[in-house]
Amino acid sequence: MKKTFEQALDELESIVKRLEEGDMPLEESLELFERGVRLSRDCRDRLEKAERRIEMLTKDPSGEIRLEPISLDEE
C-alpha cells in the first residue's frame, strides 16, 4: 500500500533526523539517504500533480488562471 503524502513526509523528516545524528554505520546511512531521496522525489511529484490539478480547476472559460483569495475564516 502506498503511503499518503503526509506519511511519506513524516518518514522523510524522520530519516533526516537520523542522518543528522550520524550514529550509524556508513552502509545504513547510505540506505537511509537513498530512501530519503526516493521519498523526496515522490513528495515533490505529488505536489506538482496537485498544483496542476489546482491550475485546471481555477481556469476560467477562456483558459486563463484566476487567482482568488482563500478565506481562512470559517463561518
Notes on the structure:
The radius of gyration is 18 Å and the shape is elongated. It is an all-alpha fold and 75 residues long. The protein starts with a helix and ends in an 18-residue tail after the last helix. Helix 1 runs antiparallel to helix 2. The model has no long low-confidence stretch (mean pLDDT 86). It has helices at residues 5-21, 26-57. It has a single domain (5-57), classed as Orthogonal Bundle (Helix Hairpins), CATH 1.10.287.
Task: Give the SSE layout.
Blueprint: H1 5-21, H2 26-57
Helix pairs in contact: 1-2
| Helix count, DSSP H or I runs of 4 or more residues | 2
Could you tell me how far the N terminus lies from the C terminus, measured between alpha carbons in angstroms? 37 Å
Largest sheet report = none
Content-based structural category: mainly alpha
Give the number of domains.
Answer: 1
CATH architecture: Orthogonal Bundle
Fourth-tier CATH superfamily name = Exonuclease VII, small subunit
What is the CATH topology? Helix Hairpins
Unreliable stretches (pLDDT < 50, length at least 5) are none
Strand content: under 5%
Q: What portion of residues is helical? A: 55-70%
> Which of globular, elongated, flat, extended, rod-shaped describes the shape?
elongated
Give the topology string: H per helix, E per strand: HH
Look at the structure and give the mean pLDDT.
Answer: 86
Count of beta strands = 0
Q: What is the alpha-carbon Rg in Å?
A: 18 Å
What is the CATH class? Mainly Alpha
